[in-house]
Amino acid sequence: MVIMKRLVLASSLLLSVCLGHAQQQKILADKILAQIGGNIILQSDIDNAIRDYKRNEDPSVGSQLPPDPECQFLKTMLTRKALVIQAERDSLPVSDEEINGKLDNQIRYFVSMAGGREEFERNAGKTIYQFREDNRPYMRDQMLSQNMQQKIVSSVKITPEEVEAYYNQIPKDSLRYYESQLEISEIVMHPKANKDVEDLLIEQLLGYKKEVESGKRKFVDLVKLYSKEPGASESGGMFTMNRLSKQVDPAFTSAAFRLKDGQISPPVKSAFGYHLIQMVTRVGDDATVRHLLLIPPISDADIKITVDSMETVRKYILDKKITFSGAVSVYNEDDQLKYTGGNYVNQEGSTSVTYDQIQDPTLLTSIKNMQPGDISTPQVFQDPNNNRGQNSSVRLIYLRSKSEPHRENLKDDYDKISARALQLKQEKVMNEWIQKHIPTFYVHLDKNASKGCPALTEWQKVSDELDNGQQTVVN
After folding, report:
1. What are the tens digits of pLDDT across the range 118-136?
2. FRET pair for 153, CA 20 to 30 Å: which of 235, 267, 350, 386?
3. 145: nearest Cα among 19, 21, 37
């Protein structure tokens, strides 16, 4: 299951902006290594998984590529596809809403890592909507395999005695050494532009709209001259969208799909600023639009108002009128923090982070001067997730906990040790289930693929028996 988890990580990264490179590699001559049911596994699938694994190795947690990576990854892919088939047999539910939610969360993260939607789409070579639809089948299979795996091991429990026995068999010089572990929460507010400034932008947009509708100017020319969207001078503000996509601001989507071909909207306020939208063409829930974006500039006075508001929130928390978690729910305006309850998470999604996993230098500096339980004063910082104005946001930082560097022990690290002991027990149950159920699947392996790979012995045995007509698949 360790390899299984790493494969999920590596394969999930196929959704990242690095996917374009991985797909280019697959243009080369390919080879079928295995088939299970109606699913095939290609040599390029193994090569890409190994490449992604290497790129994302984390030596700090002891993750290393196994000595026989092709063998182990092929076994893992066979296992995952077997789990998908069994999940379908057992009619395990995976709804479109769940798939959409997972895809949206993945893409939201990758867009942030790429530095914005335009950069993401440029690297991926396709729109977010196209990217999302292309990866939907894979996400469905990933979720089905995970659900089936959970069904198999859901009844596996671990006792304190088993945890202690597991800990005691670890050589003392092999016990893990932990750097300081931090738990950090944040509340972020985005400064708002002065209403007079917003009114001025609306008047500008109305003027542009009038010029286009009177035939004096072309919409695309105005976009290239005045739009504040990155890349608008090259793209002319054009992009494709889908009514059901959650990647586009709801107000923008609503306004766009009220338009007829060639029609221009009145000024539309979104999370990014103010838009004029022109419908280029529409077919059902799919549309191609152009838009002109103006972003209200944020002044120092606007930032000061937000700082004062955040100071009021801080006072509420210190006076125990509201908890920090409650304040996150009420006052936080950062989209990513909404999905983590205000908690700072590392790339694996854990809320327990080390200093070197904190990628924001200003956050890192602040944390080093804080003690557990401290809540910072409001801080102005350059926020890459804030597409408004000058990218300045204001935040409160809460240092929930901080552990000192130490060698692993049962007192301080029982939960971590227990989780590893449970994982080993679940792996045993999982491996036993797979060995028992391999004969229930149609399997064909290329003999060269399994040569010198003891991990594939049972898979090859079933493949040989099916090829020789000695066995039929039992459902």
Report:
1. 788 888 888 888 888 899 9
2. 350
3. 37
User: Is 107 within 8 Å of 74 (Cβ atoms)?
Assistant: no
Q: Is residue 147 within 8 Å of 139, Cβ to Cβ?
A: no
How far is the first Cα of the chain from the last one, in angstroms, to the nearest whole number? 25
> How confident is the model at residue 433, as a pLDDT?
96
pLDDT tens-place string over residues 191-223: 998 999 999 999 999 999 999 999 999 999 999
- The tally of CA atoms less than 13 A away on the side-chain side of residue 175 is 18
Give the chain's largest Cα–Cα span: 82
* Chosen CATH of 2-154+441-467 out of 3.90.1570, 3.30.70, 1.10.4030, 3.40.50: 1.10.4030
* Contact indicator for 278, 219 with CB cutoff of 8 Å: yes
Q: For residue 34, give the nearest of 436, 435, 466, 429 by alpha carbon.
A: 466
Instruction: Give the per-residue pLDDT at 450.
Output: 84
- Provide CB contacts within 8 A for 269, sequence distance 6+: 251, 275
Burial degree of 243 (CB within 10 A; 0-12, 13-18, 19+): middle
Beta bridge partners of 36: 39, 443
Position 23 scores a pLDDT of: 43
Whether 86 shows a pLDDT value over 50: the answer reads: yes
Question: In this structure, which CATH number among 3.40.50.170, 3.60.15.10, 2.40.37.10, 3.10.50.40 belongs to the domain 178-190+299-407?
Answer: 3.10.50.40
Each domain of the chain, given as residue ranges in start order, spans 2-154+441-467, 178-190+299-407, 195-294
Q: How far, in Å, CA of 332 to CA of 317, rounded?
A: 14
Architecture of domain 195-294: Roll (3.10)
What single string gives the DSSP state of each residue in 122-184?
HHHTS-HHHHHHHHHHHHHHHHHHHHHHHHHHTT----HHHHHHHHHTS-GGGS-EE---EEE
Looking at residue 119, what is its pLDDT? 81
pLDDT of 328: 96
Is the pLDDT score of 290 beyond 80? Answer: yes
**Does pTM top 0.85 for this prediction?**
no
Please tell me what DSSP assigns to residue 192: -
Q: For residues 445 and 463, is the Cβ–Cβ distance under 8 A?
A: yes
Q: What is the pLDDT of residues 389-430, one digit of tens each?
A: 457 899 999 999 999 999 999 998 999 999 999 999 999 999
